C-alpha cells in the first residue's frame, strides 16, 4: 500500500468497508483511505495524488449519484458541492464505509 | 508606469469561468493560436478600458502544478516562466468558482507558494450569494495575503472590481519584470493543505447546509442509464437535423452566389486561361470550402451550448463505457460527433482528449464518420442506381442504402479503433472527470466562441483548400486539349493521363478511367467528384449525369464506388490537418495508407461480391 499515506490499521478495517465501485446508487459513504491499484502500473502514485488533490481525502463524505450507460461504470459521486465521474479503476482505489445519510455541511453554521 | 504592457495570466480549474472572464476583459480583441510545438490553444489579448496597458493570457484549465496532462503542463510552464518563447507573467489572476471553493482554493494556495503577485477573482459570486453563501472577502484576503475581488462573468459590468484591482497593481508596479521560477518540491502534504483550507472556510465562509437542488434533480434524469441515454439520443438527433436541414437553404444560397459570380466573371472576361483559372480554379475552389461553413457554424453552436451549459461532461460520462469497449473514452465523443459535419473540425477537437494515445486513435478514425461532403456523391449514385421502392413495407430502399453507408463508417471506425488499441499497452488512464454545475449559456460568450472557432476553421482550411484547388485546377487544365479535340479537355490533361495510368490498378473493383479521373480533383473536396464526372461524361445537370452513369456503369461498379468513398481519405485538407495535429510524418503516412488500403479492399470486395451475387 505504497500509494496511501494514511493506512488504516487492520483492526479498523471492519467488514463494512468496501471499495467505492461496489457501493450502490444513492449511498452515502465516508472515505477511509486511498489504496493502490495495479491497473495504473507506475502511474498509480500520481493517480492517488490527483484524487487527493481533488478532495478525495480520508474523512471526506461522498454520495454515489449513479452509474454510466453499460455496467456499473463509470461512477458519478458528489463530494461536498462538487461532482466527479470516476472509472471503476479509480473508484476501486477509494476504500469507504457506509454512513447514515447525512448532508455534508460547509463552513460555520 | 512601464511602457511595456503588464502581463497578466488567468489561472484556474477547468469550468471555473476563466474563459468567460477572459472574454469580458479582452472583448473581441483576442488572438487564438497554438503554443509552439504542441497543440494546446494559446488565447491572448490586450485588456481594454484600463488606464495602463495590459496583456492577458488565458491559461489552460488546471487543478494542480503537479501536472497530469499536456494542458496542465503548458499552464504550469507559463506560470513558472519556463515556457520557451513565453515571458513570465507579472501577475497571476487566480479564478475560483465561489460555489466550489475548496477545490479552487487548493490551487490558489499552491500558487501562492510561488511568490508571484496574485489577484484572486471569486467568480460566480452571484450564484454563491443566491445559494446563501456569505464570504468575508476582506478577512480571507488578509489571511492568504492577496487582494480578492468578486466577479460575475455573465454580466457586462461584472468585471468592475477586477479592473480596479488591476489598476491598483499597475500603480504600485515597479516595472521590474518577473523572473522564471524553479518548480518547487511539494512542501506540505495534501492533507495538511486541505486542513488549512478547511480552517479558512470555517473562519470566513458562512454557508447553509448543502441541500438537493434542481441541479441534482436534473442530473438524476440526464445521468440515468436509460432515460439519460434517451435524452442524449434525442439531443443528437436534433443536432443532426439542424446541421443538415437548417443549413441547407444557406448552403444553397452560398452555392448559388458562387455559381452566379463564376458566370459573371465568365461573361465579363474573354475566354482563356485567366478566365478558366478564376472561374474553375479560384471561385469554384473557395466556394467549395465556404459552402460547408453554415453546417460548421451550426454544429459548433450546438457544441458550445452543450459545453457551456455543462451537459457535455454528462454525455461523456454516459458514453464512456461503450466507447471504452473499442479503446476510446467518453471524451472522444464530441470530436467524433463533429466529424459527421467535417473531419477537419472533428480532428481539431481531439485536443480535448487528455490521453495522447487515445487522441491519436480518435484522429485516425475520425474520417470514417460520414462527413457532409460525401453526401452529394452518395445521393448522385444512389439516385441513379438504387430503385425508389419500399422494402419490408415501410423502409425506403434509397434511404436504407444511405443509412447502411453511415453505419458502415461507424462500425469500421469502431473496428479500426479496437485494432489500433490492441497493439498498445492497455494501462488504465484515469477518467477523473469533474461534472460542473449546470449554467444557462450566455449569448455573449457563445458568439465570441463561435467567431473564434469559425475563424480558426476558415484560416486553417481555407488556405489549404484554396492552394490545393489551384494545384488540382492546373492538373486538370494542362496540357490543354489540341484544337481539333473531339473528347472533353480533361482527358488530355495531366489528371486525365493520370486517370488512364490508374485504371489498371483500379480494374479489380471495376472502375473505368472516367471514374479514376474524377477521383483526382475530388482530393480537394469529395463532392467535386460529382462535377468532375459531369465534365468527363460531358453532361450538365445532375439528372442527365445520373442517366449517363446508369447507362455506362453496372450496379456492382456503382456500389464499389460508394464503398470507396466510405473509406478513402479523399480529402487533402483532412490529411493536412492530421499532419498539423499529430505533428508526426509517420502518423500522417500511416493515416493515409491505412485508409486508402481500406478503401481499396472495401471496393474490391464489394465489386466482386456484388458481381457474383448479381450474376
UniProtKB/TrEMBL annotation, chain A:
The chain crosses the membrane at residues 54-71. It holds the Pfam family FeoA. Coiled coil: none annotated. SUPFAM superfamilies: C-terminal domain of transcriptional repressors. SMART domains: FeoA (SM00899). This is FeoA family protein. Keywords: Iron, Membrane, Transmembrane, Transmembrane helix. InterPro entries: Fe-transptr_FeoA-like, FeoA, FeoA_core_dom, Transcriptional_repressor_C. It comes from Gilvimarinus gilvus. Residues 18-98 form the Ferrous iron transporter FeoA-like domain.
Automatic annotation (TrEMBL), chain B:
PROSITE patterns: G_FEOB. The keyword Calcium does not apply. InterPro entries: Fe2_transport_prot_B_C, FeoB_GTPase, G_FEOB_dom, Gate_dom, GTP-bd, P-loop_NTPase. Residues 5-172 form the FeoB-type G domain. The chain crosses the membrane at residues 226-248, 277-306, 360-386, 398-419, 457-475, 559-578, 590-610. The keyword Transmembrane applies. Keywords: Membrane, Transmembrane, Transmembrane helix. This is Ferrous iron transport protein B.
